[in-house]
Amino acid sequence: MKRVLNSSPILILMLFVCWGAAGAGPAGRAAVARQDSDQERVARNKQTILSRLKREQVEYRGSMPGLRLKSEWVDKVVRDYAHQKLVLAAELSVGEKYALSNRWIFKDMKVTFQELFNLKDEDDEKLLPLSYGDELLNMMPGYALEGLTILGKGAETKGPYKRSAAISGPSLAMAQGANPDLLLLRGSTLVLPVYVNREGKERVALGLARDAYTVKWKDIKNRVVDDMSEAAHVEKLKILRDYITDEEWKELR
Fold first, then answer.
1. What is d(CA 218, CA 197) in angstroms, rounded to the nearest whole number?
2. Does the N terminus or the C terminus of the chain have fewer Cβ atoms within 10 A?
3. Closest to 60 (Cα-Cα) out of 122, 140, 112
4. What residue segments make up the domains of the chain, in order of their start?
5. How far is CA 79 from CA 60, 98, 154, 189, 244, in A?
């Protein structure tokens, strides 16, 4: 328990640094990029990342109406996306006196679910698992789920999305006790969707399986999965700051 608690500030520090508080603007070779507008530069960087993604053939699990993307496939795509962002940032910093900040490289960049997963029209009726593996939920802005209905793995209605909440410290330790897969998480904090059930009570969307909770693909495909704007960053910090306590966790479960 002590190790979990002591590691809790690490995610916040990493988020602060990776978003760009550390690092610098362009100099030297990268100074040429100043001739471009922010929009042109970011669009080019975004396209570079998306073109480098190594998406394997999409895999599914279940049957209609509960036919859903395999959470393992979703996790692989998200993992590769995060990797390519890190690699590109490192490449653009080569030859610079200081590492270029992510807030300059990806200033206000927005990537949609469709751009990330590149599914076909025939996948519209399938389900996207809200997988808690490999940073999908931590990456998503809270507004990505606004107005949507949270579903189960069989497409059964769980309830409307209410908000996003972070579990950390004691609440994360309690969740790990019930969900062994959470022990494999690399971070010390996990952001989860919260929905309202039929009894009008808030419940956190976390099950034993990574695909226990889903949303309809056609409802979310054109929404933003990665928002690099300052506003989204501030909102995420607020969620991390107001993480769920162990007592609140008991109520939400």
1. 22
2. N
3. 122
4. 2-252
5. 18, 26, 26, 17, 26
